[in-house]
Backbone:
C-alpha cells in the first residue's frame, strides 16, 4: 500500500512513517520545513521526502493520505485531497487501527517529560528482554530511532493531548486505549487550541475513561490538576509517585544523579545515572511503576535506568570547544525551562551558565506563557532571548523584569556575538527551542572554534 504523509517531519508523524515502512508499506511524505533529526532519520529509512505542499506530489494518487495536525483548510495539498475524494485519515487514528490494535499499550501523557519518560520506559522494557514496540516524539539514544513495531504485545507510546487533525479535534491520546497510563503532570499549554486548563483536564479525563478496570493509572501526588482529573471519575487502580506516594525517591545527590527508590516504604535499589534534575527523578519513578505493571521487577528496572542514555535534544551535549560546553534542549514552557536549568545548575555547581532561548511554540507565539518567562531562568548567569520580527508581542518588555542579566536579539548572528562576548573556559551554554533554531548549535560551535 502507498501511504503519503502530509506533515511528515513532525516528531509524531515522522515516527508514524517509520512504523508504516516497517509494516511493509511504500511510504512517502512532505513537510513545509524538512530539518534534522527527523529528516535524517526518515532519509536513512529510505522514505522519500518532498519540501512543500504542491498537489503534484499526490499524483499518481496514494492509497491513503495521513494528514498531520499542523495542516489546515486552505493548504493546497489538503484542498487537493478533499476535491479529488482521496482516502484520508489522522495520524493517531491510523496508529490505533494498524499498530496498537490488540496490543498492551503503555501511554505516557502530561505537559512535560513525555518524551523522556517514554524513552525510559521503552528502554527499561528492552533491557528486561521484553522487546517492546514504541512511538516516541524524539530519538532515544539507546535505540537511535524514534519508533519501531517490536516483537511482543507491549507498545510504549508518547501520548500527546494536542488535537489529532483539522477534521478530528479530539486529543491524540484518546485514540490509543492504553492498559497502563502514566500521567506525569498537567499545566496550561497549547493556547492555540485550548481556552484554559479545565479544557485540558477534560481531555485527560477522556483518556482516563478509556483505561480498563484491569489496567493501571500512575500519577504524582503533587499535581492538583491531575487530582481533579481523577476525581471526575476513575474506574482503574491508581498508583502514586513522589511525596506521600507509593513510589518515592530518597536523593543521594542534590542534582538527582543518585537516589534510592522506595516502593511502599521498602528500598528497591539505587539509581545512578547520567540524568539530572528533580523532574527526571519523577520521570524515573513513573517508569518503574509502569514497568512493574507489565512484570518487570523493580531491581531489574533500576538496572535498566542506570544504563539509560536520554533522548536527543533533551540536555544533549552537542559540542565542547575550548572548555565551553554547548547543550541542545527542547524546553519551551517556563516550567520546563526552570526545571532543566535547576538540574544543570545543581550538576555544574558555580560554573558560569548561559541560556539561549527561542520562544517558538504556538502557545509562546500567542504570548500565553510570557509572564512566567522572567523568573524561569533564575539559575542562569546570563540569558539571551531570540525575538524574531514576527513574534507578535514585546519579548524585551516582558523579560526586562528578570533578575538575571538579559539580552534580546533579533538574529542568530547577534546571538552568536553576544555569547562569544560572554563565555570563558568552563562556561555551559544551553540552547532551548522546540524547533531547529536555524542550526544555531553548530554555528555557535564553529564561531567559538
Residues:
Amino acid at each position: 500500500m502507498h501511504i503519503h504523509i502530509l506533515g511528515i517531519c513532525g516528531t509524531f508523524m515522522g515516527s508514524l512513517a517509520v512504523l508504516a515502512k516497517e509494516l511493509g508499506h511504500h511510504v512517502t511524505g512532505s513537510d513545509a520545513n524538512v530539518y534534522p533529526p527527523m529528516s535524517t532519520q526518515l532519509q536513512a529509512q529510505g522514505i522519500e521526502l518532498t519540501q512543500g505542499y504542491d498537489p503534484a506530489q499526490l499524483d499518481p494518487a496514494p492509497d491513503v493520505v495521513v494528514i498531520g495536525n499542523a495542516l489546515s483548510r486552505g493548504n493546497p495539498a489538503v484542498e487537493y485531497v478533499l476535491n479529488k475524494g482521496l482516502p484520508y485519515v489522522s495520524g493517531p487514528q491510523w496508529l490505533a487501527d494498524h499498530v496498537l490494535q490488540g496490543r498492551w499499550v503503555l501511554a505516557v501523557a502530561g505537559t512535560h517529560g513525555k518524551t523522556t519518560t517514554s524513552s525510559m520506559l521503552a528502554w527499561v522494557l528492552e533491557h528486561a528482554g521484553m522487546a517492546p514496540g514504541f512511538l516516541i516524539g524524539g530519538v532515544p539514544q539507546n535505540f537511535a530511532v524514534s519508533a519501531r513495531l517490536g516483537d511482543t504485545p507491549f507498545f510504549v507510546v508518547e501520548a500527546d493531548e494536542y488535537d489529532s487533525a483539522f477534521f478530528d479535534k479530539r486529543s491524540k491520546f484518546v485514540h490509543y486505549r492504553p492498559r497502563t497510563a502514566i500521567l506525569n503532570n498537567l499545566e496550561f499549554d497549547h493556547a492555540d487550541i485550548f481556552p484554559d486548563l479545565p479544557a485540558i483536564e477534560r481531555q485527560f479525563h477522556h483518556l482516563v475513561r478509556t483505561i480498563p478496570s484491569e489496567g493501571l493509572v500512575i500519577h504524582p501526588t503533587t499535581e492538583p490538576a491531575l487530582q481533579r482529573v481523577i476525581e471526575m471519575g476513575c474506574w482503574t487502580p491508581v498508583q502514586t509517585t513522589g511525596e506521600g506516594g507509593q513510589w518515592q525517591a530518597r536523593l543521594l545527590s542534590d542534582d538527582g544523579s543518585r537516589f534510592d527508590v522506595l516502593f511502599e516504604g521498602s528500598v528497591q535499589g539505587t539509581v545512578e545515572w547520567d540524568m539530572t534534575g528533580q523532574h527526571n527523578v519523577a520521570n524515573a519513578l513513573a517508569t518503574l511503576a509502569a514497568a512493574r505493571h507489565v512484570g518487570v521487577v523493580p531491581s531489574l528496572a533500576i538496572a535498566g535506568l542506570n544504563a539509560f542514555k536520554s533522548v536527543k535534544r533533551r540536555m544533549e551535549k552537542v559540542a565542547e570547544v575550548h572548555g565551553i560546553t554547548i547543550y541542545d534542549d527542547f524546553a519551551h514552557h517556563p516550567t520546563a525551562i526552570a526545571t532543566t536549568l535547576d538540574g544543570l545548575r545543581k550538576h555544574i555547581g558555580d560554573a558560569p551558565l548561559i541560556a539561549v532561548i527561542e520562544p517558538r511554540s504556538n502557545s509562546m507565539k500567542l504570548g500565553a506563557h510570557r509572564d512566567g518567562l522572567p523568573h524561569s531562568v533564575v539559575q542562569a548567569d546570563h540569558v539571551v532571548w531570540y525575538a524574531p520580527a514576527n513574534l507578535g508581542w514585546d519579548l524585551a518588555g516582558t523579560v526586562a523584569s528578570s533578575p538575571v542579566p538579559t539580552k534580546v536579539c533579533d538574529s542568530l548572528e547577534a546571538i552568536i556575538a553576544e555569547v562569544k562576548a560572554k563565555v570563558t573556559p568552563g562556561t555551559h551554554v544551553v540552547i532551548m527551542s522546540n524547533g531547529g533554531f536555524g542550526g544555531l548549535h553548530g554555528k555557535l560551535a564553529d564561531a567559538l572554534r
User: Anything to note?
Assistant: The chain is about 35% helix and 25% strand. The chain has three domains: 2-90, 102-306, 316-448.
